[in-house]
Specification:
By secondary structure, this protein is an alpha+beta fold. The protein has one domain: Nuclear Transport Factor 2, Chain: A (Roll). It has helices at about 5-30, 35, 60-70, 150-155; strands at about 40-45, 55, 75-90, 90-105, 110-125, 125-140. About 20% of the residues are buried.
Length: about 160
């Protein structure tokens, strides 16, 4: 492969990984179960840290974890930023910062922040999460906040 082809492949991989990171946000926020299911290798590990229980291993366990999260926190709006992505052939790593507005059944409207550390693998030409770890930095209930009339947050009965 010449240097131009290698550079194009690296750029295509980076874009695919950025789309994967965005797909995670849309999958959780929708929620879009079908999309979320497609983002993981069959042997993926999803570790949200001690605040959210034990890590989930495998797609079915990850989807079960997602259902638990949606039951406890039915409204989320994830924003990922400041991604640092390192690609090495068919594996990659990333670190991303999260800012998330959520409506928790326990705490009501809540601001969440943290850092994701990811490992990805390209299998059969498709990039997917292989290992995702979340380091929670902030869980701040927003007392006195009110949802916009007619919004998803307004329509969710907490």
């Amino acid at each position: 492969m010449n240097s131009t082809e290698a550079r194009i492949e690296r750029l295509e991989s980076r874009i695919a990984i950025e789309d994967l990171l965005s797909g995670y946000c849309h999958g959780f926020d929708g929620p879009d179960r079908d999309l979320l299911r497609t983002l993981w290798t069959e042997d993926a590990v999803f570790d949200l840290g001690p605040a959210f229980g034990e890590p989930a291993e495998g797609v079915e366990a990850i989807m079960a974890k997602a259902e638990e999260l949606w039951a406890a926190v039915p409204v989320t709006y994830h924003w990922m930023a400041n991604q640092i992505i390192t690609i090495d052939a068919d594996t990659a790593r990333a670190k991303s910062e999260l800012d998330c507005f959520a409506v928790s059944r326990q705490d009501g409207p809540t601001q969440v922040a943290g850092v994701y550390t990811d490992r990805f693998e390209r299998r059969d030409g498709v990039w997917k999460f292989r290992h995702r770890v979340f380091d929670l930095q902030l869980w701040a209930p927003l007392n006195g906040w009110a949802a916009t009339a007619g919004s998803k947050a307004d329509q969710t009965k907490i």
